[in-house]
């Protein structure tokens, strides 16, 4: 159940960060409200995750997968370029999360 909550926390964080892009510096009401709501939901779900998943593992997955997802959204939907360095960075984040989970983190 902890990892399901963590997936929800990641989805909420990714949605909030994407909405922030459209908030125009918090000058547009609805994207700004979505940003705030998304982060509130994300942190609430992350807090619930910590009941069953260690903080180091949960935070590493939350931050790493969220970062990789936002970078991918930027490339696919927001016109950000894909460079070799960016692709390598995303790949390293994904590999790091996998290694953390397979390496027996508690």
What is the structure about, briefly put?
InterPro entries: EmrE-like, Small_drug/metabolite_transptr, Small_multidrug_res. The chain is an all-alpha fold and 106 residues long. Helix content is 79%, strand content 0%.
Secondary-structure map:
Elements: H1 2-22, H2 29-49, H3 55-77, H4 84-102
Helix pairs in contact: 1-2, 1-3, 3-4
Structure description:
It holds the Pfam family Multi_Drug_Res. With 106 residues, the chain is mostly helical. It has one domain (2-102). It has 4 helices and no strands. It has helices spanning 2-22, 29-49, 55-77, 84-102. It is flat and about 45 Å long. It starts with a helix and ends with a helix. The model has no long low-confidence stretch (mean pLDDT 93).
Descriptors:
cell membrane; transport; transmembrane; single chain; 106 residues; Ligand-binding protein SH3; flat; 4 helices; mainly alpha
The main sheet comes to: none
Radius of gyration: 15 Å
Class by alpha and beta content: mainly alpha
End-to-end span in angstroms?
Answer: 16 Å
Helix content: over 70%
Please tally the β strands and state the result.
0
Residues in β-strands, percent: under 5%
Uncertain segments are: none
Number of continuous helical runs: 4
Shape: flat
Instruction: Please tell me the overall pLDDT.
Output: 93
Number of domains: 1
Order of helices and strands: HHHH
């Amino acid at each position: 159940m902890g990892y399901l909550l963590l997936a929800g926390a990641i989805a909420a964080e990714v949605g909030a960060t994407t909405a922030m892009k459209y908030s125009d510096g918090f000058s547009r009401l609805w994207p700004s409200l979505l940003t705030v709501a998304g982060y509130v939901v994300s942190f609430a779900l992350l807090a619930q995750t910590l009941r069953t998943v260690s903080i180091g593992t949960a935070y590493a997955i939350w931050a790493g997968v969220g970062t990789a997802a936002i970078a991918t959204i930027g490339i696919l939907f927001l016109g950000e370029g894909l460079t070799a360095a960016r692709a390598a960075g995303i790949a390293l984040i994904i590999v790091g999360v996998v290694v953390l989970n397979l390496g027996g983190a508690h």
